[in-house]
Design brief:
Structural class: mainly beta
Distance between the termini: 28 Å
Order of helices and strands: EEEEEE
Length: 67
């Protein structure tokens, strides 16, 4: 299921794609993958697969740049 995330003015910031196994893929407004939350390990990873948070912080990837 795809959830559209919008800013205060209604412009699309990005999308959260909820997968059947509980994982969530965060995508920018242009569809590029920014990272993902993996339910099995309870971690959020950036686009390169590096763990950047413990827990579900997928939505934060839409507003925070993590190198």
């Amino acid at each position: 299921m795809r959830e559209t995330i919008r800013d205060y003015s209604g412009m699309i910031v990005g999308y959260l794609d909820h997968e059947s196994n509980g994982d969530i893929v965060a995508r920018g407004y242009n569809g590029m993958i920014l990272g993902r939350y993996e339910k099995s390990s309870d971690t959020t990873k950036n686009y390169a697969g590096r763990i950047i948070w413990r827990g579900n912080m997928a939505a934060a990837l839409l507003v925070v740049r993590v190198n």
